[in-house]
């Protein structure tokens, strides 16, 4: 059925970002404004460089091969059939005049007008000017980074297996993760678990040959699960041979030579940076008010402070936590999904002239996976660890992953993983798909030597 064109003068809602807040807000608006959208009385546009939303809590499992990468993303156009989805970046936004400059993935920039804006651009990795970090480090926020890291780790095992050079082997089998929050700990734990399984198929690489290092500036890891559970997690990681260094900083990574503040110095072929995030750059290119950390100032109603018809939530927003005086909501999926529901409802209330409602959500707790059958959780004051926490981690996140289709596929992946062995194949060549063709072309172009 053809989509009806918007009625002239119909409110246009611009959603900047297609992540947790952006997608869930649009999904809720489609549900609440079903009739208006069908009649063309309102228009919703979602702008994001990617055509999908990534469920980031599943990135570690995708990197470890427990889940298919395609099953941890949700296609925006399929999930949001009544919205206009633009694969582009908002490079500038002037809310006073209600326009935004949109730069498509290909083609010239475009200026679009709107009536309501939702700033849901999320966050990007927060890096520091550490020598060598930009050249050798990799983040862990996107599905592309997760796939690359999986291929890279397995490729390092291949390198070590195929050489007798001691220094090359030592460098290839050293893996450094900076940041002891959820992203860093879960990524390291899942990938170490995968490498441990893969080592069984190598003749010259053993678990003892590998060195896994976690570097954290604070005096504990996983602060979200509390000091006791964080200490237990550190002990568990150390029991697996992982070197957990707390109150330690990365000082240099020049030439893939790691230098730490505790005096440690060693070569490493893998450096993963998960030490914090910052608001996406677009917020700085807007006229929306920002706090000292570069986040959009939000009210408890998820409106932008001092501005009308502007809303925000998620990682790029400083949202007051009404359950803790003077505090802000943590930048995590739990808050983002719930905030998007209240945000969308408040836009609908605004359109219909009703009073807005505040966002109030008491933090339920946290769960983390540490590899197959290993986990830690602190939920509603109850501390859980081991297999029970791992099961709780999977149960919670499969309930939150968007769309029934994705839930079924994730469960199917897990079921198959319990029956069959984990795949340990590096497909690094997919990152340079033209390399073989270019080599063949160069060989063909060489002058041929005729032998009499």
UniProtKB/TrEMBL annotation:
Protein's UniProt keywords contain Lipid metabolism: no
Cross-referenced Gene3D superfamilies: 3.50.50.100
Pfam families referenced in this protein's UniProt entry, alphabetically: Pyr_redox_2
GO molecular function, one term: NADH dehydrogenase activity
Residue ranges of domain FAD/NAD(P)-binding in the record: 12-326
Family: Belongs to the NADH dehydrogenase family.
Alphabetized PANTHER family for the sequence: NADH DEHYDROGENASE, NADH DEHYDROGENASE-LIKE PROTEIN RV1812C
Name of the protein: NADH dehydrogenase
Taxon lineage: Bacteria, Bacillati, Actinomycetota, Actinomycetes, Streptosporangiales
């Amino acid at each position: 059925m053809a989509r009806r064109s918007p009625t002239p003068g119909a409110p246009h809602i611009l959603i900047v970002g297609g992540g947790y807040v952006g997608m869930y807000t649009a999904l809720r608006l489609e549900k609440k404004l079903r009739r208006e959208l069908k009649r063309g009385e309102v228009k919703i546009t979602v702008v994001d460089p990617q055509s999908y939303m990534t469920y980031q809590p599943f990135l570690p499992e995708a990197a470890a091969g427990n889940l298919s990468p395609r099953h941890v993303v949700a296609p925006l156009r399929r999930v949001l059939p009544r919205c206009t989805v633009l694969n582009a970046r908002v490079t500038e936004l002037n809310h006073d005049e209600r326009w935004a400059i949109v730069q498509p993935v290909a083609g010239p920039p475009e200026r679009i007008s709107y009536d309501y804006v939702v700033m849901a651009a999320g966050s990007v990795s927060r890096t520091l000017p550490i020598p060598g970090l930009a050249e050798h480090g990799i983040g862990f926020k996107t599905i592309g980074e997760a796939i690359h890291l999986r291929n890279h780790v397995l490729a390092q095992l291949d390198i070590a297996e195929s050489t007798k050079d001691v220094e090359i082997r030592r460098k290839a089998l050293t893996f450094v993760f900076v940041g002891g929050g959820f992203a860093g700990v879960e990524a390291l734990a899942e990938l170490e678990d995968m490498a441990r399984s893969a080592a069984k198929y190598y003749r010259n690489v053993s678990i003892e040959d590998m060195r896994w290092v976690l570097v954290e500036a604070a005096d504990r890891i996983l602060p979200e699960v509390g000091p006791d559970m964080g200490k237990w997690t550190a002990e568990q990681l150390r029991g697996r041979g992982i070197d957990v260094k707390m109150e330690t900083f990365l000082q240099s990574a020049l030439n893939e030579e790691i230098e730490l503040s505790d005096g440690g110095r060693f070569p490493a072929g893998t450096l993963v940076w998960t030490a914090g995030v910052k608001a996406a750059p677009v917020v700085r290119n807007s006229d929306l008010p920002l706090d000292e950390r570069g986040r959009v100032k939000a009210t408890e109603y998820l409106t932008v402070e001092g501005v009308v018809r502007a809303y925000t939530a998620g990682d790029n927003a400083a949202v007051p936590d009404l359950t803790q005086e003077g505090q802000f909501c943590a930048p995590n999926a739990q808050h983002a999904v719930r905030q998007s529901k209240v945000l969308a409802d408040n836009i609908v209330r605004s359109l219909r002239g009703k009073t807005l409602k505040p966002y109030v959500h008491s933090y339920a707790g946290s769960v983390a996976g540490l590899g197959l059958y290993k986990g830690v959780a602190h939920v509603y004051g109850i501390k859980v660890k081991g297999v029970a926490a791992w099961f709780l981690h999977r149960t919670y996140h499969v309930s939150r992953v968007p769309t029934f289709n994705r839930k079924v596929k994730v469960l199917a992946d897990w079921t198959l993983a319990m029956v069959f062995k984990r795949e340990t194949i590096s497909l690094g060549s997919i990152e340079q798909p033209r390399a073989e063709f270019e080599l063949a072309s160069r060989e063909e172009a060489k002058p041929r030597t005729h032998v009499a």
